[in-house]
Every structure is written in C-alpha cells, then in structure tokens.
TrEMBL record, chain B:
Source organism of the structure: Bradyrhizobium iriomotense
Protein family according to the UniProt entry: Belongs to the binding-protein-dependent transport system permease family.
Keyword match Membrane: yes
Keywords assigned by UniProt, alphabetized: Cell membrane, Membrane, Transmembrane, Transmembrane helix, Transport
Protein name as catalogued: ABC transporter permease
Amino acid sequence: MRNCASEVWSFGPSRNDGVEDGRHHMDLIANHITHRFGELAVLDDVSFTVSAGEVVAIVGPSGCGKSTLLSILGGLLLPSSGAAELRGAPPSDSLNPLTFVFQDFALLPWATVEENVEFALLHTQLSSAQRRAQVDDALRRTGLTDFRSTYPKQLSGGMRQRVGISRALAVRPAILLMDEPLSALDSQTRELLMEDFVGLLADGGMGAVYVTHNLEEAARLADRIVVLSRRPGRIREVVTVPMTRAERGEAAAREELLALQNQIWSLIRNEAIDAEREVQHA
Amino acid sequence: MLDRAVSETTKDTATRPVRFRGAGFVPASSRFGGWVALALVIALWQIAGSARLVNPLFLPPPSAIARAIYELAASGALWQHISASLLRIGVGWLLGTAAGVAVGFAIGLSRLARSVGITFISALFPIPKIALLPLLILWLGIGEEPKIATIALGVFFSTAISVYSGVDAVPRNLIRMAQSFNVPFATIVRKVIWPGALPSILAGFRITASVALLLVVSAEMIGAQFGIGAFVLQAGNLMQTDQLLAGVVILSVFGLAVGRVINWLETRLLHWR
C-alpha cells in the first residue's frame, strides 16, 4: 500500500521510488492550499488528491482561482499557506513529471515547431540522438511531422496548441497540468482537439489536472470534477463521473453526461452570476 | 399624384449599390515615388543655381557640391576625414553598446541593479553628452579619448534603456513556460530573453547610430584637425559653402548606409516577426 505524508516525493532522491506491482505511481496532492494576492483572497483551504493516471477537472465561476491553483500545483507560484505535494515516483523516463499545457500556447515565436518542442529537452541529459528521437516521436503523436520547420505565426490556433501538447509529451510527463487549453480556440477546432485529448489520456498512463470553465469538456475528460466556489475559491463539491472515458463516446452516454453537466451548472450558476456582476479590483 | 406613386414603386424594386466608405488610411509607399521627388528637387535646385536665381555663395548648386566631393576624393583628404570620424564612431559606439547591453540586461534581470541603475540613468540620461566634452578633455587629454568617451556615453544611455525595456517586454508567459520545464536561468536568458528583447535592442541601435553621428560631428567641431565635423567647420569659416555641403552630403550618405545595415540586420535576425 502506498503510504501518506511521510512519503511525500520531492525533486530529489527519494526513499520510496513509488514502484508497486511493476507500475509507477505518482500522486499530486493539494494540501490545504490558501492563497491571497495582497488583500485579495483567491483560494481558501483547497485540498484534494490526483492519483496516478487520474484526470481531475477543476471548474468554477470566472475569477475563482482555478488557474492560480494550477500554477501552485505546478510549482510556478508559492501559496500563502498550505502546499502542493507529490507522493511516489514518476516513471523513470519522465524528464518533467509535472508539465504544463498553456491557454495561450506559450510558444517561442522565433523558433520553428521542431525547435519549440526541442526547447523543453535542451537542458536535459539526453544525447542529441535521443533528443531527436524524442522530438520526432512527440511530433508524430500530434500529427506535426510535416510542420516541423514552420513558425508559430504560420499555424492556426489549433495547430499551435498541438505544438504545445507535443512539447509537453516530449518530456514524458506523469501528470499534465492543462490550463484552459482549448479556450483560445474556435468551437470546431476545440472539438477536434478534444478528441485528441480523449485519445491521449485513454490508456491511463498519464494523469491530468484540467482547468476549464467549459462543463462539457470537464464531463468528457475527467474521472472526477472539482467544483470551486466563487472567489475566494473553496471546494463546493467533488463530482465523480460514473463512466469510463471510452463509454462516454457512446450515444447512450450523452444524456447522462448532459445531466451531469446540468447538475454542476446548478451548483455554480448563482455564483457565476455574482462573479459576472462583481466590480473588478484594480 | 400619379408621378409620386410611380416613383415610390421604383424605390421599392430598384437596387442600388451600398456606398463604399472604407477608403483611405492605408498609406502604401510606391517604390520609386521618393526617388523621383528627390531627383525633381535636385533638378530644380540645379536649375535655380545655373540660372543664377540664388547666390552660389549661400547655396551652391548640386553640380558644385559634386565637384567638391570629387576633388576631395581625388586629393585623398576625403578618406582622411572619413576614416578619422569612422574610427571615433566605431570605437565609441562599440564601447557604449557593450556597456549599455550589459547594464541593460542587469537592470532587466536583477532587482538590485534595477533600483540602482534606473535612478542613475534617469539622472544622467537627459544631460546633453556634448556638455561633458570639456570635462572629459580635462580628464583624458586632448587626443582621441575624450571624443570617443563622449560618443560612448551618449550611446551607453540609449542602449541601456532600450535593452532593459526590451527585456521588460519579453512576455512573462514565455519565461514561466521555460521555468515549468526546469530550464536553467542562463538558458532562459540566452534562448528566451535575448531573442525576445532583440527587436527593441535593434530599434535602439537605430537611435544610437544617429546619436553617435551627432556627437562625433559636435566633438570634432569643438576640437579636431581631421574628421567630417572639423572639415565642415573649417569650410564654413572659409566661406567654402560647396565644401561645407559636400561634408553634409557625406554625413547624410553615412546615416543612410547605417540605416541600411540595421534594416539588413532586422530582416536577418527578426525574420520570424
């Protein structure tokens, strides 16, 4: 059995390599995370665990601190109190266990598709041949092989986000941290990428934290949906999606998923109205 | 009555195009327009000079200026003056740029350097650097050093400002992205911040090149035997306006050439934009 707090894994030598039954396990834990930006309370005592291979969506009204929470989970922001913790070890070939996919893609405009993907590997111990192989593999998995020499500005939004995903896959993540990865895209492109995400996460080899304001995306991808209240974000409810991701593609599942979305919407509708009417702080 | 009824029927069925009102506000320069206008002005100037409509002492015609340049070149004096100026500009610009890039990056990257550096730059940047030349002559003697130092100072401040503004303008999301992949600091500076700041740095070069030109001419007018500035001043003192304007034309050509070099650098280095 995996143990709890004493086995928290950090980026360094760990006593427990997390290997159990030949499989690797790395859980990501939000441990009583509270965050304030100056006077503004953004997150209030948020705790949950993303188990290895699990996909957890975080939804909530706008401004509820979803993206802030993801930054804290990924180590890009220090919380005011509480902590983001890891337990167990990632797969041994993982170069960056917690890997972000950004809403605005965050591609280097002066680098080609290939160079953008390779950028994530430049500082690693890989030989240039291994690096090349890993870049090729990531480009192939995202259908970008023919676009390797193009620049981001020449690509459509959907293809740009594929570059972002390709770059994330190149470092063999254990958990993808996806910050509204589809919200900058039009609805048709969103649908296409959604299908890719379903395929990507299908085998459970990779976990994900998926921040979105789109309840449909959450219901289609997630094993569990963490519903946050409006600012300061607290956990309103954690909804378990009662189907495998494969089952959700079937026609019969549609109504059930829709009912689930409606259930979540009823949880946050009033708060979304309040959030919308709120005067923004300077 | 009848007329009106007919016209109303016409109004209902006839079509008319929607009036186009989106014209203008997209100035596109034609390729040869500028050159034609320049040639026209020079031609008019020449005609006015040849017809003795203007006194050649005050405004010699283009042909006289061209002759003056030719004679300068033939006597070898032209190269003597140009090389003296080029040496001062080159060394001064390189020194000022190297220091400006280093300080600009420090201000852009370090909190301590920023709080100290911005205070000093704000205080010293507005000083016309040529006002420091007498002081620099006292410090460094009357040779090349004070002129080069004046140019270097002028170039330094503009460069430092354009470099740190460029570093500030690098999108923070790219830096966060690099950090999220555990990219080390030095690599972030080399692979993210440097290319991200380059547009602003090159725009700064355009400004510092003209600052260097301005300062070299001013410094040479204050105290130099050779150099375009000294030459222009001597020509003015001797009322040799054709020679004076020859010097001005050379300065203009030099400015254009530097602009071309920077254009070329921008197309080479910023092709991704």
